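Annual report, structural modelling task.

Input specification for the adenosine-5'-diphosphate complex:
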Amino acid sequence: VDIYVAVLRNVADETIGAVVVLHDISELDRLERVRRDFVANASHELKTPITVIRGLAETILDDEDMDAGIRHSFTEKIHAQSIRLSKLVTDLMTLSRLESVQGEQDSQLIDLGEVVRRSINSFRQVCQDKQLTMKLELASDKQVLIPGDIQGISQLVDNLIDNAVKYTPEGGLVSISLVSSKDSAELVVEDSGIGIGYQYQQRVFERFYRVDKARSRELGGTGLGLSIVKNIAEQHAGSVSLKSEPGVGSTFTVIIPL
Ligand code: ADP
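The model returned the following structure:
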């Protein structure tokens, strides 16, 4: 609701009343605003690395006698920014794909345990470097099969584990569990990391929302990971929820109906 307030005064400048206009913004207006914000945010996010890349490249081009060490460090920065740019474009394309298919994605039976194991494997090196312990708990030996889009589900799992690894300091613990009941599968990704303040817990699923922008950037984040997770979970008629305590850790739970 848009609220407009005006105070009415008489000629002697005494307050004689007020007018309050409550304007109910329709769902369409709200969606249009969300879309506009998104385009503005995306453009800004794309522009930042481009500006850095351009500035550094121009500096290198302008200075033919540049010290080799400085040139090397500039080139490394250009490389890092281009990786960031490419990750951003990939995430934006994923979001756009998710929105265009709206539930008509390729559906097949997916072995969720297998997807999780594969994802864990791809983080083995990072875990070793950060001395993180990654644990997997499977409730039973039986396969957990869910109908869905394998590409999307793999991305959902990757994004949650990637965050757990990113936001957990050295020596921490990431534990992943998979439980299935008669009618749903539950994936839990828990970490002993920095946690998320209560006031931010709902907002982290919004596109481009980050609790600490500088930290996320430094870690290679785009601010789109959790919005992609939420989108994919909902596309599978499921949901994602978060429990977290700052300084203690975070637990993300995804529930997908079978
Ligand atoms: P990013 O690319 O910045 O990681 P995400 O959409 O994946 O973007 O997450 C949004 C924000 O939520 C992050 O910037 C971070 O502040 C917070 N966050 C996500 N996962 C975790 C986690 N496991 N522990 C602590 N903070 C997290």
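The chain has a mean pLDDT of 92.
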